[in-house]
Design a protein that fits this description.
The protein is an alpha/beta fold. It contains 26 helices and 14 strands.
Length: about 500
Amino acid sequence: MLRLYVFRIFMLTAKIKTLGALKQAGYQSKSIKDELRDNLIRQLESGKNFFEGVYGYEDTVIPELERAILARHNVLLLGLRGQAKTRLARMLTGLLDEYIPFVHGSEINDDPLQPISRYAIDLIADKGDDTPIDWLHRKDRYTEKLATPDVTVADLIGDSDPIKAANLRLSYADERVIHFGLVPRANRCIFVINELPDLQARIQVALFNILQEGDIQIRGFKLRLPLDIQFFFTANPEDYTNRGSIVTPLKDRIESQILTHYPKNMEIARKITQQEAGLLAAQRERVVVPDILHDLVEQIAFEARGSEFVDQKSGVSARLTIAAFEQLVSTAERRAIRNKEKQTIARIGDLTGVLPAITGKIELVYEGEQEGAALVARNLIKKSIRTLFPHYFPDPERLKKKSGENPYHDILHWFGEGNSLELLQNDTDVAYAACLNAVPGLDKLIERFQATWPAEHRLLMKEFVLHGLAEYSLLSKLQLETQTSFKDLVSSMFNFGEEDEK
């Protein structure tokens, strides 16, 4: 039997354009589920990772999805927003044969050897082996529908078309007056319904026969169309109570339910952000982002997923870190453009520029609404700094419980003598360096604990130390729109207006 990937060569050379030529070439029909299964087996046997670029699912979601395909199941991907559910479904077109033949003019991609529509059956009966055929590329075999409350049965399944009946002078009892909906038009294709619980219950009922018996019913027509469709559904657990539900008989007909999840560690989260961030080459060239800032951006999402002010049922999408990283780069880029600098290194202070990316990506509970989205976002950044600080320098909390040398003594002593430091948001790199180099003890601390850091990144580490000490209440930090001020904590207590709200 000749495989369909060989048929593409036939199409280009022998120009198979009729049913007779297709039969002579040895073509045999195959269901889409068998097609996906056979091509996945070929991928697994070759040792290739078909889902390349999807990180964090290698040992969880992807094996379950592969098992579902091998079992020829319809699939429900269940998970919070921003967990690559739709992306996984879209990737599956790569497991389809590159081209399949269909009857020329068919609205539902009729298989020339197994036609199911009245149009195709009549055409083949009339023309026989001279029936014209066309070829459908796999990129055109994907249909996606977002479930919304206004979706109707006619949208999905179809309805009688009075205009077609009038033009063809047909009775409404003739099935040729049917206007097919999205599902029949997706015959021999992958069909995805996103946010399934948002689909009204009475509309979900219309899918029962399609999933179980593989056929459809339209307006009482005595019509049976054994459709060949691979269904993928996506849903958010939050939707089950807030906006709707998946009716039990429908859920029972979806053979495999696969749970998705957020990245489980920093390394995976960083890979996802770097892959998805839409940065221009000019931005990457102009702005250098050290590893510590990559980690801080990711830590913001981890902190949000554990925050008492953030609605955990809604989830914290991976889009937060992607948008935050893009904002971080653009904040540094804007400063470099204003200062006429060809290249700059992103700073801790640039994290204030990511606030819009955070406030627009989190849903707050009542207590969070009372606090305010901006304050919650600022506190998430502060907690991220506090969480990561002990990964680079001695934990200030542990030092409080121990007697002996304090590696932060020289820094704290300098501030204790009444000195202060002001970092302007739009400082030039020269001014930024002058401010940080004025604080004694920072060079010694970094040389002792982070000697492997590149010299050009050490100014960022100095700033990180000051922010870290402030988050551990060893320094006072006042953060305004255009500047950040650091002072001795004790002296700042006598000026309440300068206290940074914790």
